[in-house]
Structure formats: C-alpha cells, structure tokens
C-alpha cells in the first residue's frame, strides 16, 4: 500500500471504508476500499462474492477492480475512480434532466445489467448510489451482494434498498433471480425523470402500499404467485386501481412510459430481460451528441475515461496478476457506451422482436388513484454530503443503507460509491 498516497476519505461504514488515493508512480487516481474484517489467507479473500463476480467481468459500464491487496491480514480493493454517483448527480438539481440524458443513463445501466446477467450473476442491490458517473459515462458498482443466477435458493430476503426492492423480495419469495434487477432499473429510470423516488416506503408494508397505489392491486391474472406469497404471510394487499405512469411522469415520452411499465410488472416472469429492454423503441430515438452530465447550469465533471477493453480483465493480486485463460471469454456487449443514434420511432412502442407475445399494459383506462404527496428528492434525516463515490461522512444520517462502493451495511451506517458493505 505504500505505492498509494491517500488524498481524502470518501466514507466509512460498518464493514469498510473508502478513500480517494493516487498511485505515486503513475499518478493515476483510484478509490481504495479497506475491509475492516481480517483476512488470514488468499483463499478466504477469493471466496468473496465481490471478487468472484468482478474478476469474471470486464465491461465499460461496470466499475473496474484494478487490484486486490492483502497486507498484514487487511484486504484492500483498488478501483478506478469516478467523480460521483447518480444520487449525488440528482439530489441538488432543480431542473429536470432532458429525456436524452435519461435515455443515455438508462441505456448504460441496462448494458451493464445485460452483460452481468449473461455471465451468470445478478446484482441484488441496484440503486442510484451504486451507479457511478463521470462525464457522460455511467458504471455499475458495489457487487458485494451479487449472486450467481445458478446458485441454489433460498436466498436472504433482505436485498437491495427498500425503495428499489422488487415485490417478490418484499413478499419473501424463497426463490428470485435477475428480474429483481430489472425492476430496480425501472424505478431508477422513473426517478431520473422526476428527481424523486417512485416508491419511498417507510417499511416493507408501506413499500407494498406505495407500489399498489401506482400499479394497482395485483390479481390472479397479473400475478398469481404474488397472491399466494401474500397469503402465506397472512398479508392482505391494499385495494387500488392502477395509476398510469404518464400521470406521474408527465414529461416522459410514450416510449419511456411503456418501457418503465414493462420493467415494473408485478409478475417477474412478465418483465423483459435487460437484453430485451435494450431493444425497446425508447432507445431508437435519434439524438445529437450530448455535453457531459452535471448539475443544471453547472460544469462538466471530468472527461470520459477510456475504459473499453475487449479482453478479459486482469486483476492484480498484490504484485501478482491473475489471468483467466481457462475461463470463458468476457463476451460481447451491444452498442457501446450510450444509446445508439437511430431515426425516431415513436409509434406503437414495444419490446424487441426477440420477445414473444409481450404482455399488454395494465389497464391504463382505470381511473387514477390518489397518490400521496412525495417530498422533494432528499434523504430522511437531512441531505447527505460527500463526493466521489457517494460515501457520506460517518456522522451523516444514512439515506438508503448500503451504497456505492460499499462502505456501509444494511442500514447500520452511511455508505455510497464503491460499496464497502458486506462483500461475501
């Protein structure tokens, strides 16, 4: 670790802390996560889910794990550094993002998700704090809760921050998989349009109440399994008719409304995959080149880093670089870093042709329910402060629980950016 010089702390949590640092030799700025748990062997380190997932994935929209260092039984993760996370980008804006910005960010999130799912992992903790942003580039971070899609259930019921938690997880389904990540992307996409969370529940029951107030009460036709899950818990769904998303997000185009509606289906089997979502007509609208993202009226936040690498990612372990010749290739990804420029197609939005018989919309003709007033995009207990990977100072009140590069835990401390939450 003597090769790095600490610039400033980014945050501290129950499971670890994150600092911004610079490589003394190359001058490269990095983020270093220091785990608080002691690790007495490399075998123990290599069992961490974060290491297992990131060492197998190399994609321009997934944060790069540059090096793993074990020194005096202390484990350090060295990540590439990005300026801020998506929550920080949104929280102080007074002016809404134009749809082109939402499209660009959503496309990159889905690119990362499709690649991750293709390679056999699902994230389980998708939220704005775990989406790192630099200029026009977005990268998914904090893989401490990632699981292999083929891993055997039951899984823990507490995954992801409540506001972005899929209904099947809220209802304690013993088995769930990649569709929970797609649900979370749908809620974040809506949040980028409105600058406020769509389902800011104060408890699990209140979370389901807020979901019902928008999607309407599930039925045997819309989600038969969900009714059985609720019955097993002796839970009774609140009675609502669906509120069209177009009333909640009036600035969104019909294509955007359609995509968000599809990703937030009650039934996980009816949600599109991330790869199918990338083929939606929302991403086929032609766009002019965009200036770097930043607060409204503000300046750019750093230049776009060159992180494209078609080769399998090599992760240095101490002074030794691991190679993965016997592992399958990292695979292809579609369309580069941002949404492709295509002629606008606004009529009859639908999912890509690789999806057969996409489900119809929930009855948009139903009269709207009365939505509770939602507060401006602010965390409970006051606004978080901090920069870089979004890990707020330890004294600040947590907004979401664990976040970012993971320097937090399950609501036990503030966190953000690189996620120094539980990695195993």
Polypeptide structure, described:
Helix 4 packs antiparallel against helix 6 and helix 6 (179-194) packs antiparallel against helix 10. The protein has 424 residues and is α+β, with helices and mostly antiparallel strands. The strands form 3 sheets. The protein has a 7-stranded mixed β-sheet, with no helix packed on it. The chain has helices at residues 42-46, 49-54, 86-91, 99-118, 167-170, 179-194, 204-215, 220-232, 245-248, 254-263, 274-278, and strands spanning 4-12, 16-23, 29-38, 65-71, 74-80, 84-85, 121-122, 131-134, 137-140, 147-148, 315-317, 320-322.
**How much helix, percentage-wise, in residues?**
10-25%
Question: What amount of the residues lies in strands?
Answer: 5-15%
- Widest sheet, order of strands: 1-2-3-5-4-11-12
Classify the secondary structure makeup into a structural class: alpha+beta
Overall radius of gyration: 21 Å
Helix tally? 11
| Low-pLDDT stretches | 295-314, 317-416, 420-424
Mean pLDDT: 74
Total strand count, please? Answer: 12
Could you give the distance between the termini?
23 Å
Could you state the order of secondary-structure elements as H and E? EEEHHEEEHHEEEEHHHHHHHEE
Biggest sheet layout: 7 strands, mixed
Tell the overall outline: globular
């Amino acid at each position: 670790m003597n090769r790095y010089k600490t610039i400033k702390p980014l945050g501290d949590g129950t499971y670890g802390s994150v600092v911004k640092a610079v490589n003394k030799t190359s001058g490269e700025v990095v983020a270093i996560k220091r785990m608080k748990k002691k690790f007495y062997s490399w075998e123990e380190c290599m069992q961490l889910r974060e290491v297992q997932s990131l060492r197998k994935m190399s994609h321009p929209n997934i944060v790069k794990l540059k090096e793993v260092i074990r020194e005096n039984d202390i484990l350090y993760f060295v990540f590439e550094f990005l300026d801020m996370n998506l929550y920080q980008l949104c929280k102080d804006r007074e002016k809404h993002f134009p749809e082109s910005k939402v499209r660009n960010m959503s496309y990159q999130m889905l690119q990362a998700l499709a690649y991750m799912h293709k390679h056999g992992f699902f994230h389980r903790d998708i939220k704005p704090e775990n989406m790192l942003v630099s200029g026009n580039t977005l990268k998914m971070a904090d893989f401490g809760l990632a699981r292999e899609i083929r891993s055997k259930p039951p899984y823990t019921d507490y995954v992801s921050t409540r506001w972005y938690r899929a209904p099947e997880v809220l209802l304690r389904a013993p088995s769930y998989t990649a569709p929970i990540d797609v649900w979370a992307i749908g809620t974040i996409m809506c949040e980028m349009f409105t600058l406020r969370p769509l389902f800011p529940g104060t408890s699990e029951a209140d979370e389901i109440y807020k979901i019902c107030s928008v999607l309407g009460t599930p039925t045997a036709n819309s989600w038969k399994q969900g009714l059985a899950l609720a019955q097993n818990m002796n839970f009774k769904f609140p009675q609502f008719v669906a509120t069209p998303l177009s009333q909640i997000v009036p600035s969104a185009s019909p294509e955007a409304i359609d995509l968000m509606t599809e990703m937030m289906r009650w039934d996980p089997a009816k949600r599109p995959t991330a790869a199918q979502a990338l083929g939606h007509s929302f991403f086929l609208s032609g766009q002019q080149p965009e200036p770097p993202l930043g607060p409204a009226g503000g300046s750019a936040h750093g230049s776009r880093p060159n992180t494209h690498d078609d080769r399998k990612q090599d992760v240095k372990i101490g002074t030794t670089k691991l190679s993965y010749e016997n592992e399958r290739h990292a695979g292809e990804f579609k369309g580069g870093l941002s949404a492709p420029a295509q002629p606008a197609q606004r009529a009859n939005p639908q999912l890509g042709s690789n999806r057969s018989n996409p489900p119809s919309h929930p009855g948009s003709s139903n009269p709207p329910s009365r939505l509770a007033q939602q507060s401006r995009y602010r965390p409970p207990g006051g606004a978080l402060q901090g920069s870089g990977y979004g890990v707020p100072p330890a004294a600040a009140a947590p907004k979401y629980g664990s976040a970012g590069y993971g320097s937090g835990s399950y609501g036990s401390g503030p966190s953000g950016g690189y996620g120094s939450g539980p990695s195993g």
